[in-house]
């Protein structure tokens, strides 16, 4: 998102002139919104952009991909971020940070993102394409968590469930932001709120120096209690759950 | 799954003779496994099944659908189950029960399910189709939970995250069961274990007489603590979280 190939056809490559890739995106969107996605051919797009048909396929494998031009780069950024953080910090925080890359991609050009959201909702082929992209993000996050939770009891289950939770929370916040018109100042607080909701449920408390839980797969105690539960019952519940010998 | 149109082409309609639908499924699978999915045409399938081309489309909208012949019925069963339980019981338990319908569909014919799993893994078009089916299940569960959590703070967020968690846990258990060869006696315990994992995190404790939380959106307190946390810190944490006036 920083090399000038932003989704917005009108800005980005520093020369003030849209790149060929940007021109193709702008032309495609103009036609998709005017005629509909299915009614627009790749020939229509290259004609309006004033480039050859082969140029289109140099940038985009299919007509669907021109609608989501930055997901490939975002997936690569996500993979890179998670590789850098392979063994550090609280795992759920790391995947939430990785999910924020997607949010930032959308927030980089809110007007484009809102238009695309409207278009995608109404075109089954685009929704199918979006599902496959979302699946790849979720798979990338789950893969990372599976490595972090290797050796835990229910490690892969935990990884898959947390990855799905993070993606669902991210998409809930992203869509509600897009439906509300995509105001730039809104997006971060909405996203933080949604991701914190997941972190509160699934975040792992580590001792700050190490996150290797292999020796202690059940390091964390989760207690769920009704607000009105009397304190003596809460304490009894904790005591029966905690291993007495491990308490200070 | 009880009207004789089971996925297994060899059994089911009570007459001992496969129905036309079953014959089409059996023929399709024979060809898909022999030649590959992409290399098999609908004409090949109807020819082997000994029926006309129009019969195929009477049962299946597309070649992909013949690989997942029972999802439409399962989705309808899920919707019906959730309608019956519109206002009753713990919401997360209800969606877990609904998810078990999918598990039972797979478990009704393990050999077919294992074959299909192998086939789907290797064919991108089938994986895309499966993603769209999974999305519809998730959407059905989320819709139900959104109604149940209407009036809660973060109701739609909670609904979306729990639905995604349930689907991820279900699919984790289902796939590990299929990878292990699909032994019939295995599936229920694997599934219960995975769904209980989600219920422990997201299940809602109600007072047993009502599940209407609208007046009390933050009815539940979730505490996550390290095993070694001293008890005084646990208690202080709970006290600062609970509203003092609401405790007995």
Describe the overall structure.
The structure is a homodimer of 248-residue chains. By secondary structure, chain A is mainly alpha-helical. The first copy, chain A, has 2 domains: 1-68, Arc Repressor Mutant, subunit A; 71-202, Tetracycline Repressor, domain 2 (Orthogonal Bundle). Chain A contains 10 helices and 1 strand, in the order αααααααααβα. Strand 1 of chain A pairs antiparallel with strand 1 (220-226) of chain B, so a sheet runs across the interface.
How is this fold's topology laid out?
The structure is a homodimer of 248-residue chains.
Chain A: H1 20-35, H2 42-49, H3 53-59, H4 71-84, H5 91-107, H6 110-122, H7 124-148, H8 155-179, H9 187-202, E1 220-226, H10 231-241
Helix pairs in contact in A: 1-2, 4-5, 4-7, 5-7, 5-8, 5-9, 6-7, 7-8, 8-9
Keywords (chains A, B): DNA-binding
Protein name (chains A, B): TetR family transcriptional regulator
DNA-binding region (chains A, B): 41-60
List the helices and strands of chain A in order: HHHHHHHHHEH
Low-confidence segments of chain A: 1-14, 206-219, 243-248
Report the principal-axis shape of chain A: elongated
- Rg measurement of chain A, Å: 23 Å
Greatest interface and its participating residue counts: A-B, 53 and 53 residues
The CATH architecture term of the largest domain in chain A is: Orthogonal Bundle
Number of helices of chain A: 10
Number of strands of chain A: 1
- Please give the domain count of chain A: 2
Portion of residues in beta strands of chain A equals under 5%
Largest sheet of chain A: none
Fraction of residues of chain A in helices?
Answer: 55-70%
Q: Give the averaged pLDDT of chain A, no decimals.
A: 82
Oligomer: homodimer
Cα end-to-end separation of chain A: 50 Å
Would you tell me the structural class of the helices and strands of chain A?
Answer: mainly alpha
């Amino acid at each position: 998102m920083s090399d000038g190939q932003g989704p917005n056809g009108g800005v980005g490559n520093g020369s003030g002139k849209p790149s060929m890739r940007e021109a193709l995106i702008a032309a495609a969107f103009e036609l998709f919104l005017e005629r509909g996605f299915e009614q627009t051919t790749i020939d229509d797009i290259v004609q309006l952009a004033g480039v050859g048909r082969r140029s289109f396929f140099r940038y985009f494998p299919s007509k669907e991909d021109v609608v989501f031009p930055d997901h490939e780069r975002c997936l690569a950024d996500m993979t890179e971020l998670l590789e850098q953080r392979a063994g550090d910090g609280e795992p759920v925080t790391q995947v939430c940070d990785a999910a924020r890359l997607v949010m930032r991609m959308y927030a980089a050009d809110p007007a484009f993102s809102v238009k695309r959201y409207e278009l995608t909702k109404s075109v089954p082929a685009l929704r199918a394409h979006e599902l496959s992209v979302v699946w790849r993000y979720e798979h990338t996050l789950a893969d990372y968590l599976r490595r972090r939770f290797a050796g835990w009891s229910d490690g892969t289950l935990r990884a898959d469930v947390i990855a799905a939770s993070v993606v669902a929370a991210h998409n809930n916040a992203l869509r509600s932001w897009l439906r509300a018109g995509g105001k730039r100042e809104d997006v971060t607080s909405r996203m933080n709120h949604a991701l914190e909701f997941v972190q509160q449920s699934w975040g792992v408390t580590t001792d700050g120096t190490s996150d290797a839980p292999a020796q202690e797969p059940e390091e964390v105690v989760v207690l769920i209690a009704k607000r009105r539960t009397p304190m003596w019952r809460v304490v009894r519940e904790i005591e029966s759950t905690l291993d007495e010998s491990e308490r200070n």
